[in-house]
Every structure is written in structure tokens, then in C-alpha cells.
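Issue 218. Parser rejects a valid record. Input:
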Amino acid sequence: MTRLPLQAVLFDMDGTLVDTERLWWEAVEQVAGRPLTDADRPDVLGRPVEHTAAWLAASGGAPVADLAAALHREFADRVRTGIVPRPGALDLLDALARDGVPTALVTASPRAVADTVLDVLGADRFAVSVTADDTEHTKPAPDPYLAACRALGVDPAACVAVEDTETGVRSAEAAGCTVLAVPSLAPIGTAPGRTVRASLTGLDSRRLAALLPYELRVLSWNLWYGGTKVRDHRAKQLKIIAETGADVVGLQETYGTAAQELADALGWHHHRAGENLGILSRHPITARLGDPDVGFYGAAGARIAVGDREVDVWTAHLDYRCYGPYDPVFDARHEEVRLAQMRDTLDRIGDASPVVLVGDFNCPSHLDRPDGGWPVTRAAEEAGLRDSYREAHPDPAAAPGHTWSPVHPVREDGSGGPEPQDRIDYVLHRGLTVLDSRTVVTGTPHPWPDVAGNDWPSDHAAVLTTFAVR
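Output the parser choked on:
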């Protein structure tokens, strides 16, 4: 089982690395002219100076600009004389440096204050620093963490953000980071993708890496009559699965026995449903979902244990007849059977999350074609399922992602007309983070009917999506 590699650690400053939350609290009390209470925390802790100044001004104080200047002055004076590193902070920074893990400072404080703190901590400890002056929106917006990741050239999903306030936690989580919360003045609750600790003492890169999500690689593949149109199809299928590094494979057109034969050869778990559908998984299957006697068309699912989480994975094959793109003008009647099958699949899936639905839908996507409603994929979207390939590649012109068909350049009806090249195979999801998605075809397949010697044993391209499972 593979976790994402730790690419960087992103640190909040005030209250996380240095004990400045107390100094900020005292500065706000000085400017407000009164003691602060717990009711004041949401407008004081983790907020930029401008927010707190506007909050004070709303209570009948001086103009916002004057209050902001006074807050800057009072806080900076305290920082210069009273800054104290938080327990374990310097040891953790040193450990990360020894292991070659890049770090960034990500703060809602202005640049002048951050530079004062960096002088104390050592500016060379951080490859990047992002302050309230460096992005249009600061915390709780995701902008500061996204800016730090861009500057480091890292993926937020492979980063741990260390925060001490709810405001900062929301910012880091919105950016897609795993969060380590070390509360300073106010408690922070646990949540998926978030770990809460009392201090930074005893942490190192190995322990932070253990907080990252698992990587789950899901492959959708129509085997084309089980692969029997191609010589040595089973050996070629096994080779392709191994080369993709897939963890879970949703199969269509299994020809009855392919799922079990492939799983036995791989030493994996599997679920076979009806004559046409199957799921392979290197992770344990804890439940089998849907109708085990599903017909040639329909959907079947399995619950997969991924670390301490479970993910429902469904595979679907929708009716191929009356293929919509064969007509020059979109006709919604072509999609009625497929739409009914998709709605039945969505009813079976329900509101499960996280969930993955893969399959050969035998229709294009409304995200790709402006020439019609394409209601099958739209129904999935309306049910909250996201198209992982289009998340990774938003522009259909730049990345069409065609899966139909690598071996059918012309139609088989004898007309000699071109076969529409479309994206009809999908990996949809709800509740996961997409890291990457691509189509898969090995070699250069010969066109039909000269296919027996192809390295690629299918008439569809496969789709491989890599998810982060928090």
C-alpha cells in the first residue's frame, strides 16, 4: 500500500512556529483598549491585520487605516522583544533540512512582520515565504498555500501544512493539503485528512509522511470479448495491468471468466458479477455491491479497504446500440436506454462517499461535445460524480482523451465512413482527490480486422486515474 511521497512541509508562522499568538492577542487588547474574551477569537486569531482592524472599527473605534497601523506597530514592537519558538519547532525544521524536505513559511502576517520573525528563526530554513502582501486573498482562502506550492513546484496533495488556528486549517485544506493542527490558543477538532497534536515535539519527516493520503490507481478497461480477438490475450492483459501500476481495475466484457482468471494470476481479490462485469483489487474487498446476477449491461460494485478507509468502486457497461454520434444531429432518443441504465446505477450507488464509478458508457460526454445534451454523463454529474479525466485535463480540444477506438478507424457497416473517435470510457468519482488521469494504449494497434497480433488486446483505450485517499 503506497502513500504519496512527502514533497514539502508548509508552516504557518504565528502560534505555530513562534509563540506570537499571545503577542498578537496582547497587541489587539492594547489597541482595543479592553481585555479580549473567547467571543473575540474568530475575529482575532488567524486573521490578517486588515480584518481585525475593520472589526475594531465596526465597534466605534478609529478609522480602519489608523487601527491597522496601530496593530502593526504594537505587534512589531512585541515581536522584536518577545518572540519565542514553539516547542519542537526548530528541531523539526532541522530534521526536515537533514532529510532534504523543502519547507515554506505561509502566514497571514504582513511581510515586515514575517521578515522580523525570519531573522530570529533563520531565513535560510525556508525555501519560500508567502505573506499577506503576496496574494490577493489571504487565509482562510486557499491562495497562500497554493502560491507556496507553485513556488516550490509541488503538488498540494503531497504536502503537509502545519497550522494552529481554524482559519489557517481551512486555508490549507481548501488548497488540498494534509493538515497537522497544533492548537495554540483555541481548540481544533479532528477531521478526515487532519491530525491534531499538542505540540511539534518529537516529529520528523517520517512521521509527517505517515500523515499523507494513500495513492489509489483505478483503471477502467473494456476487455473486448474478454480479449479473445487477440493472441495470448491473457498474458498481454496481465502485462498491461502490471505496467500501469493499477490498484483496482473495473472490467467490462469479461466474457464470463476473465476477472477470476486475472485475479488468480495476480494474486489479487476480485468480484465477478454476471457474464460481463468484474472488479480486480490488490486491496481487500470487504463487501460486494449490486446484483451479482446482473445481465450483460448494468453495474456491479465492491467495497475496497484502502488503509483505514473504504472506497466503493463500481463498474458499468451501458448498451451500445443506437450510438448517438452516428447521426450528424444529436437525438436524445438514442440515449434513453443508456440513461435509464445510468439512473439505475446511480440509485444503487446512492450517496456513498468516497466512491468511484468506472465504465464503458457507449456515449460521449457533455463536457466534450457542444452538439447535444448527452444526458448520461450529465445525470452522473448531477448526482455529484466528477469526471476525473476532465478534472486533470479541463480542455477537451487540447486533451480529447479518446477511448473509442484504437482499432476502428472506419465503420463496420460497410459504408467505409470514418468511425467517430470519442471519449466513451470513464473514471468518475465523489469524495476523492484527482492527482492524474490518462488514457492507456500500448504499442500501435493494427486496425480491424488485422488485430490478432496486436500488443493491445482491446478495441477500447483504457482510462487510468490516480487518486489521493484521505
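Fixed in the parser; the record now loads. Residues 214-469 form a domain with the Deoxyribonuclease I; Chain A fold (CATH 3.60.10.10).
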